[in-house]
Specification:
Elements: E1 7-9, H1 13-32, H2 48-65, E2 85-90, E3 97-99, E4 108-115, E5 118-126, H3 127-130, E6 136-137, E7 147-150
Parallel strand pairs: 2-4
Antiparallel strand pairs: 1-5, 3-7, 4-5, 6-7
Helix pairs in contact: 1-2
Length: 163
């Protein structure tokens, strides 16, 4: 784990509720429109819990970076924060930042790990720098499409992210 730059903390009860409400609205819209997960995620992992975690991670990152969280619904590949910040989250504290082939290389990507109600920003990377051949694989899950697995050691200090 890249402990040099990590920032950990929690959300308030009100912030958690806001994030959960946003995640629910996102899921409702997706189900209403008949959309399915576009990244090959098996249905058993496409859960409300993951939706909640992602929304909470976005809000935590916004708080740490010091920018407003838009709590957007139906924005898809639009930025999660500001005009060009995407937030990726994982329950695995040693997770890589996963950059998908259809992710915008002009955006910046933040990795937030989650352990219960504690969130940790591990770091960030410009999208254009995430696309290294040595990180392009599907070895961890051969049934899913290849993607870029950016190691935590390659991530930059969150305090340096432009916004």
């Amino acid at each position: 784990m890249n402990t040099k730059y990590e920032v950990s903390g929690t959300l308030t009860a009100e912030e958690s509720k806001w994030a959960i409400d946003t995640a629910a609205a996102r899921r409702f819209e997706s189900l209403s429109d008949g959309r399915k997960n576009s990244h090959g995620m098996p249905p058993k992992y496409d859960t409300v819990e993951n939706d909640n975690q992602g929304a909470k991670a976005e809000l935590f990152a916004a708080n740490v970076i010091g920018i407003e969280w838009g709590a957007t619904v139906n924005s898809f590949k639009g930025a999660d924060l500001g005009s060009n910040i995407q937030v990726k989250s994982s329950k695995n504290p040693n997770s890589c930042l996963i950059f998908r082939c259809d992710d915008n290389p002009k955006h910046n990507y933040v990795l937030v790990t989650c352990a219960g109600d504690v969130f940790t920003i591990v770091g960030w990377i410009p999208g254009v720098e995430a696309k290294k051949d040595c990180w392009y694989t599907n070895a961890q899950c051969p049934s899913r499409p290849k993607q870029y697995f950016v190691p935590q050691s390659a991530l930059l200090d969150i305090k340096t992210i432009p916004h």
